[in-house]
Amino acid sequence: MQSIQGIAVSPGIVIARAFVLEQFRERIPHHQVAESDVARELATLEQAVEDALESIQADRDRAEADLGTEPAKIFEFHLGLLRDPTLMEPVRNRIETETVTAAFSVSEAFSSLADKFRAMGSRVFRDKARDILDLERRLIDNLLGRAEDRLSTLETPVIIVGHEMTPMQAASLTEEMVVGLATDFGGRTDHTSIVAAALGMPVVVGCQTLTEHVDDGDMVILDGFAGKVIVDPDEEVLQQYHDRIKAIEEARSIVAVSPDEEAITLDGTRIQLMGNIEFPREIPSLLEHGGEGVGLYRTEFLYLTSTSEPTEEELYEQYVNCVRNLDGGPLTVRTLDLGADKHTQAQALEPERNPFLGLRSIRYSLQHLPQFKRQLRAILRAGAHGPLKIMFPLITTMTELKQAKMILADVREELEDEGVEIAESVPVGMMIEVPSAALMASTFAKEVDFFSIGTNDLTQYTVAVDRGNQRVASLYTATNPAVIRLVKAVIRAGKRRNVETSLCGEIAGDINYTMLLIGLGLRILSLVPSQIPRVKQVIRRVDVGSCERLARKVGSFDSERRTLKCLQDELKLIMPDLDGGWSTA
Ligand code: PEP
Ligand code: MG
């Protein structure tokens, strides 16, 4: 039995077999095979190519049905390559003449072709290089019978164990049999963790050496409350955890709230609970959990799932879909927040030294105007179908905000000239997620209709800690007095200038913070949908006066530890029936 400490991201406890993902980009070793095995390698290659052709064709058909013929054309390049004898013949020849494995031969041929494309310089060719590497991975996955295929054929529940994962890989873990996730890398609020938590299962990241201690099929306990992974537990520990799961379920049923019950404090103050989403498909679950609308739609994820940039029409369809499915609740569309840990294929080819301090978010949009305008057009058009707001991310200077607003005004004018139906008026807001914006909030307030405080980034930029780096994770906490002071200043500035202020960082969904946030004056929170019932339950058990007293008390503390302890103690007092369950802090 081995117990490994990581960082708790999403609460809950599960016990299941481990499903260990192989490293995503490994070097294929130069393996020789016996002469007598050459025929087998060739046959395996033919089968892998056939399977790849079949799955690409299926993807193309699906894209054609969902998105139309143009977007489906991106698959033609892949299909053409696989059928191209000038590429595939050398792969077969190498297996025969050098007696190597099919995987090695594929890897050599595809990697060298990708290098040639890359050397041609232009972005178009570099994108093609990326396509070739994607295709290489698909073929090698087929040859080695790798994870992606195994995942879709699972028959028993598993906990995914991996070294590192991108946000997109986390987003694809939607199979019913995946009941938890644990990784070596990552921090509590990096985007991979956010996406995984949105799937509503326990998640523990930053375990550092977990993959060295787990083998595929090992029994694993994933404790999403304590941020712990126990590998190969003994009978006694297993029993303890089974008992704990039972106790948590009982506590949950005692304190469960129905989605129809209002988020209202004991003294009658209403708190609006909105949802953070990454994909339109999350809206039904948001409504089931009692969300009143979307407070943060992270639109960049649509760009990450596509191999080419989505068209205005595709974006428009997605946004309209969201507006319609929200039943009159508002949709807060945040414009692209690309860069840092969320990059497109084009960005991946131009790595930055300090990506979180680099060409990220609104900065990226302002340097890629055609793309930015396409998105703004789609948003304004979707606004004609229901309540919608626009929010600009990572605003750091007034010039950026004014530029973004000017471009929005230009786009509006263009659409009006074209006679296209658009929203008459759309509230325009900004995220406050860098200290410069927080400190200047009362100045920014003159230019916007609303603020949304993004504590995930505000914390990382205030305490100078990469939100995704497990090595310094203990320093990354919104209980840091400097972060709380900035949040308080923004709420005050918003109140004074009559600018609606909400908070959409992950702490909005962490019940340890609920009383503090109410006490600081917030009345709108936007959070991961699965946490809404829990936060609502806390709200229904507190009164604003005691929350304000707590905020004052915490305001006098000089350390994050003391603050966290105080918040936890206060929560225990109002939720004694939780038995330590429901919270990850
Ligand atoms: C934030 O920074 O708090 C936020 C909500 O945005 P994201 O997590 O997408 O960076
Ligand atoms: Mg952010």
Structural domain count: 3
Per the principal axes of the C-alpha atoms, what is the gross shape?
globular
CATH topology of the largest domain: TIM Barrel
The low-pLDDT segments are none
Q: Could you say which small molecules are bound to this protein?
A: phosphoenolpyruvate, magnesium ion
Separate helix tally: 26
The helix content, as a percent range, equals 40-55%
The computed structural class is alpha/beta
Strand order of the largest sheet: 1-8-7-3-4-5-6-2
CATH superfamily of the largest domain: Phosphoenolpyruvate-binding domains
What is the terminal separation in angstroms? 25 Å
Average pLDDT figure: 89
Strand tally is 16
Largest sheet entry? 8 strands, mixed
**Over all CA atoms, what is the radius of gyration?**
25 Å
CATH architecture of the largest domain: Alpha-Beta Barrel
Explain this structure to me?
There is one protein chain. The chain is α/β, with parallel strands linked by helices and 585 residues long. The protein folds into 3 domains: 24-143, Enzyme I, Chain A, domain 2 (Orthogonal Bundle), CATH 1.10.274.10; 150-252, Glucose Oxidase, domain 1 (3-Layer(bba) Sandwich); 260-558, TIM Barrel. The strands form 2 sheets. Strands 1-8-7-3-4-5-6-2 form an 8-stranded mixed sheet. The model has no long low-confidence stretch (mean pLDDT 89). It binds phosphoenolpyruvate and magnesium ion (MG).
